[in-house]
């Protein structure tokens, strides 16, 4: 199917207990309870351990280059009862297996005499103990793996020569850093540690104010940016320029007045209720909560039987979340800015937006435009000017790990989903976030496999939208607008039908064409398959999930819904990229969006792939931009009547050329000036028009989740 970018990638296999599925998950964010403390210790070691054989041989600027462009990250968890089978079938080299006291014996016996490195948090003869790892022992370990590979493969002999020369030439410069310590700065401290910096940390004291947290992050971010050599920003193959993240909790837990919290509140006095609400449920800033209270009310939350387990769970979740972000930041050598918790406290606004999107209100569009504008401004105020300026200027490729629709944050009048290349991984459930962030390495897939597309369709025979998508696709095929594409439409009406269709399919992309819905903040979302509301969670246990999933159905990742969305279910099952929907979508708009994606693959890609491989994120970003242009032009022509058909076509062609042929970073500004020229509106009227009518466009209902930047498409033989 796909192959990872380099053979020098180290596969890290972390062996977890057999009963992981039956185990409790943490209360707020949903991490399996086995992660703490031993498995967390392994993740922490992995932040500084090589992810690629080359990592340890490079220093300085060359080290930064290898991390920002190469060094794929592959950390997989595997249940102990499957390890023997896995190791007997396994071709993966180089492989390092990690265990704890819970799994060390099983792993040791499964490895037997095989030349596989086994590292454990448990003391066991013949097994490397985590605490014995230091720079020299790791260098010896990696060199040993390279030596063994060099005996079998010529390319590794060459690799070994280059690597050892690099190592001999390396000059050790010491970078000394004074930093502010807090979980919001920890990932960036880890990045600098991996570079070899000596760090002196002063902890940030708890305070109601966030200014220290922000200056702490800005200082480290500037240092990391300064260490990234110029040629990184010129490379289309670099990973991300920045990571933005915000830990969150299950949606329904943000409602402090919910039945769940009321039940607990009845057992707490007022100071404890305040602590629960402001310290745990709706904590703002960076969780740097200080409680003002009278002396007579003072209490230690760790001594309270209700608060203690909640507080311990939340602290473990934050440690885990921060460590995963650190792992990814080190792997990409990029700054990681944590957003304040406040961005997660606007569920009321998202519910209002959700209601409007489902309403029959004649003025829904104007109202939605106002609501979207308000929401965008709120988020910007929460984040603050200093962070905004730092995160969004001079960057292009973003990885966001958060649960709110960060896609909608406007930067210079344009939502970031159109302005930048953006990947987003949801931060709940924690287990899914961890898996998607650590086990989807950069991989190359063949263009011809992308041309093989499966559409899984499920509608009643009399459903008026049943043939919307298939009719357009067939019309395009007849007009020869989809050359080289092999598109198969399969009708299903049961879960088993989906499983069979997926297992028979060998291409890269599956499109689901059906109805969808969701159960609000507490229940799962579903796809309507036959008469069934189908949850797609755990589908990987029965079916092969391709890297790319497109959900042409309503509310598959609802902006106001729970974490258990259809899109998250496909991420849990192993997809790299899932295109979902924030709300009900108009079926004809969805059909046009999907067909344009297919046309982009058929017509645009063969031209650009002659130059280089493209990431799936680049491909989709271009489509989102073109779709935005179309939404705006439709509005100008059909609703506002300020341009005619001829002007529409003229602007459309030029805008698409800016986006595709020129890959123009300022395409939006140029598009706006094309509109100004044609409409001849004065500046004030034009700004008003944009503010009142285009804060929301239909394409903003689509969302791409996962790691699309790690799916590269190349023409065979490249």
TrEMBL record:
Q: Which InterPro entries match?
A: CHAT_dom (IPR024983)
Which parts of the sequence belong to the CHAT domain?
483-600
Q: Which domain of life is it from?
A: Eukaryota
Q: What is this protein called?
A: CHAT domain-containing protein
- Which species does this protein come from? Polysphondylium violaceum
């Amino acid at each position: 199917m796909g192959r990872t970018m380099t053979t020098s990638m180290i596969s890290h296999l972390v062996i977890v207990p057999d009963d992981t599925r039956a185990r409790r998950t943490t209360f707020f964010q949903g991490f399996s309870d086995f992660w703490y403390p031993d498995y967390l210790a392994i993740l922490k070691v992995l932040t500084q351990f090589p992810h690629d054989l080359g990592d340890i041989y490079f220093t300085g600027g060359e080290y930064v280059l290898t991390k920002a462009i190469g060094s794929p990250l592959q950390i997989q968890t595997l249940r102990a009862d499957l390890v023997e089978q896995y190791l007997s079938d396994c071709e993966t080299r180089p492989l390092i297996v990690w265990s704890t006291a819970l799994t060390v014996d099983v792993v040791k016996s499964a490895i037997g005499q095989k030349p596989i490195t086994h590292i454990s948090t448990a003391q066991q003869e013949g097994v490397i103990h985590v605490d014995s790892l230091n720079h020299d022992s790791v260098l010896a370990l990696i060199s040993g793996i390279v030596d063994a590979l060099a005996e079998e493969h010529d390319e590794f002999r060459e690799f070994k020569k280059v690597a050892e020369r690099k190592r001999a030439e390396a000059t050790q410069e010491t970078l000394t850093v004074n930093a502010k310590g807090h979980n919001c700065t920890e990932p960036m401290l880890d990045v600098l540690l991996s570079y070899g910096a000596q760090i002196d940390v002063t902890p940030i004291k708890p305070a109601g104010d966030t200014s220290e947290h922000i200056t702490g992050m800005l200082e480290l971010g500037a240092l990391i940016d300064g260490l990234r050599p110029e040629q990184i920003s010129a490379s289309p193959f670099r990973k991300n320029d920045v990571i933005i993240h915000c830990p969150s909790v299950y949606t329904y837990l943000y409602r402090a007045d919910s039945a769940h919290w009321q039940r607990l509140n009845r057992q707490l006095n007022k100071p404890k209720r305040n602590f629960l609400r402001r310290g745990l449920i709706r904590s703002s800033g960076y969780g740097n909560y200080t409680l003002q209270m009278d002396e007579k009310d003072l209490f230690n939350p760790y001594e309270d039987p209700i608060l203690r387990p909640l507080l311990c769970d939340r602290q473990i979740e934050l440690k885990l979340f921060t460590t995963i972000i650190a792992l990814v930041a080190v792997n990409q050598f990029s700054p990681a800015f944590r957003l304040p918790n406040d961005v997660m406290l606007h569920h009321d606004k998202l519910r209002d937006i959700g209601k409007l999107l489902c309403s029959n209100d004649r003025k829904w569009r104007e109202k939605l435009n106002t609501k979207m504008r308000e929401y965008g401004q709120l988020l910007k105020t929460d984040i603050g000017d200093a962070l905004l300026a730092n995160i969004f200027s001079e960057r292009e490729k973003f990885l966001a790990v958060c649960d709110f629709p960060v896609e909608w944050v406007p930067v210079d009048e344009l939502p970031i989903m159109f302005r930048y290349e953006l990947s987003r991984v949801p931060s709940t459930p924690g287990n899914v976030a961890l898996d998607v962030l650590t086990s989807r390495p950069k991989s190359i897939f063949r263009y011809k496999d992308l041309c093989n597309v499966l559409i899984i369709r499920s509608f009643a025979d009399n459903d008026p939208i049943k043939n919307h998508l298939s009719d357009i696709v067939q019309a395009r095929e007849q007009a020869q607008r989809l050359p080289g594409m092999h598109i198969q439409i399969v009708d299903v009406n049961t879960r088993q039908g989906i499983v069979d269709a997926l297992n028979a399919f060998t291409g890269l992309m599956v499109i689901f064409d059906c109805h969808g819905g969701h159960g609000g903040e507490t229940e799962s979302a579903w796809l309507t398959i036959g008469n069934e509301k189908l949850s797609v969670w755990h589908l990987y246990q029965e079916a092969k999930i391709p890297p790319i999933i497109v959900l042409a159905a309503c509310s598959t990742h609802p902006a106001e819904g729970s974490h258990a969305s259809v899109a998250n279910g496909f991420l849990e099952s192993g997809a790299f990229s899932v295109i979902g929907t924030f709300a009900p979508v108009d079926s004809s708009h969805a059909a046009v969006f999907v067909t344009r994606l297919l046309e982009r693959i058929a017509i645009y890609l063969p031209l650009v792939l002659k130059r280089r491989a493209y990431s799936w994120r680049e491909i989709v970003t271009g489509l989102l931009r073109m779709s935005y242009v179309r939404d705006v032009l439709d509005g100008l022509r059909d609703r506002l009547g300020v341009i005619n058909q001829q002007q529409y076509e003229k602007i459309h062609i030029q805008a698409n050329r800016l986006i595709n042929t020129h890959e123009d970073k300022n395409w939006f500004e140029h598009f706006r000036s094309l509109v100004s020229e044609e409409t001849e509106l004065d500046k004030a009227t034009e700004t008003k028009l944009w503010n009142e009518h285009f804060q929301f466009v239909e394409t903003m209902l689509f969302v791409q989740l996962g790691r699309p930047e790690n799916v590269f498409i190349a023409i065979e033989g490249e």
